[in-house]
Specification:
three-stranded parallel β-sheet, 5 strands, globular, binds tryptophan
Amino acid sequence: MQHRVLTGITTTGSPHLGNYVGAIRPAIEASRKEGNLPFYFLADFHALIKSRDPAQVHQSSQEIAATWLALGLDTDNAVFYRQSDVPEIPELCWFLTCMAAKGLMNRAHAYKAAVQANEESGEDPDFGVAMGLYSYPVLMAADILMFNATRVPVGKDQIQHVEMARDIAGRFNHHYGESFVLPEAVVDDSVAVLQGLDGRKMSKSYNNTIPLFLPEKKLKKHINKIKTNLLEPGESKDPDTSTVFQIWQAFASEQQTEEMRQAFKEGIAWGEAKKQLFELINAEVAEPRERYEELMANPAHIESVLKEGAEKARSYATPFLAELRKAVGIYSFG
Ligand code: TRP
């Protein structure tokens, strides 16, 4: 059976090395595998939940689209589109909203975290909580179910949302007849969760990222900011507690990893290890960076690629939504 693999990227922020290693690189590899039909999309409706800055949402959408294309996403094989170009998705979202139990949404992590933060600071529990945040798992279910995706590659934090999509799909099927395939979350444990400059998980919310397509000099500067300890050159260093080594591993071959492990034992200077890390990463990103810059300078091209992707996406979504409308009792009289 052909697997429909679907994942979305929320368009707030610039892609960083952690996104690249943890999500973009494996997704692009998967898109080249025979037998998969990948759906990759810019989750710009989701962006509005996190960001109320129109310039940021717009800029980020362009950067993310340019990034995926620059890294060689095969758009002949993958369906690559912008969520907001597929009006069937918000319509399906409403059908699903009417099926989703409120009690289920009460349990969503993102909402619960917001409530907890409010309670801890003595606020009303729902202070600052918009309906967008509350019902965000329903929109995510619509993204997935619109294309009857079977596999959804996500980080651990998103497993719950895929489970909710299954739950909502099951209710719909039970009530209106089999319409949806139940999707499965796929979490690839072999893919590294990259550490950031301060050693915590690389994440925009920690402000510890290394953006993916920084100009060379800036990339070097960022890499030099990775936190290390005070061991001197010649003193043996522990690779397994080092962020420099952890990032090295995500870009190096097995042999290069072994060589660096040895160099740590022999007391490589931090400055030297970082210089080598810069060279390794730069060798992988230099070519795509050029393509990225060309794409960013040519937004009309990005737009046309996304429009084509939206057409492809709608060739699935439009007839399927017509069936779903019929299933719920919304169709013409004659
Ligand atoms: N919520 C996901 C995230 O923040 C992004 C996303 C939106 C998504 N819709 C999706 C992921 C559908 C997988 C499938 O990472």
